[in-house]
Prior knowledge:
By secondary structure, this protein is of the alpha+beta class. It folds into three domains: 22-103, Potassium Channel Kv1.1, Chain A (2-Layer Sandwich), CATH 3.30.710.10; 133-249, no CATH class; 255-332, no CATH class. It is built from 16 helices and ten strands. Helix 7 (115-128) packs parallel to helix 10 (167-186) and helix 11 (191-203) packs across helix 14. The longest helix is centred in the middle third of the chain and has 24 residues, at 132-155. The protein is elongated, with a radius of gyration of 25 Å.
Amino acid sequence: MPSKKDGAGAAAAGKRQEQFRQRGDLQILRSGDLSDCIVMCGSDPDGMFTTHKVFLASRSGWFRKKMVENPQHDAAGKQVIEIDSHSPAEIALVMEFIYGAGMLDAIENSSNKSFIVTCADIYLLGRDFDISSMAEYAMNHLGKYLNTKLKEICVLPAKRARQAPVKHKFIQHLKFGIRRVDRAQKSGRGRELYKMLVDFVVAGREVILRNEDFQSSISQEIVPPEFIKEVMLTQYRGRFQTEWMKNVAVKPETLPNRLVKCVVCGMDMDLLGGEGAHYSPWSEGLLMSMYTEVCCSRCAQDEYNQDDDGMISWSVFKGDEYAYDQDGAAMRLRNVFN
């Protein structure tokens, strides 16, 4: 039987969800009260939206321009705007953002769909309908999301990174996101998102580019070759393409003063001394830009701790291949599938 505390928590969550559902001007959109504009998206009944010109014109440059250029009206005197370029689901997102206080349920309560793809779709809708706040909203949330994932790779204690629930699933979502953004930038849109993903892969390359599934996707050109080329060029240019990455890369300032453990044997490693330590590096620059996961020289030279390429097999994104003792030291599980 659920406790009173659990019941209260569920009630509070339900209340917040209902408040979010009723945010902004969504109620007037749903009711259609005082509507003076019909937006038609194809012949699908779900593609008809009973709207208000004052909301559309004040919050979307595209709709404002359309009202002037095509002043069509129905028998009731309501202006009619027809849209053939987008699906009813896409127009529903635009309406939710315009009426819903500049927020979207797809962002605030994300599903199993690739969050990168979701942000890209919303960003492009903002561009298509000249809603700058919608494009910025998607960019900001994508930045926060990638910042979290980058910390799981680069800047958090290794134990916390290994416990993160992303791993293989995140690599899948990253591939989908790259493909979506690549298509957009090839059509002349989404260059900002493209540069952000390039910077992200460069920053996390020692983990991402050594992931077997990601490597296979590169070989099969599931990940576009042009994207990988841009990653390689950006890596050796020695500079980031986005302000977002510049802000992320300076963290954490306190990392060089910390003691961390070898991920295999658990021996304390002095990051300041560094001699005999093998880093999973972000760059060859300051230690505060290094990964927190290190391996002592003795363990690094043991073939058992190396991948097929002869390099250290880092545990991040390795899933159940590793187990960890109470101190956070990694112990390779032999015959894990037996």
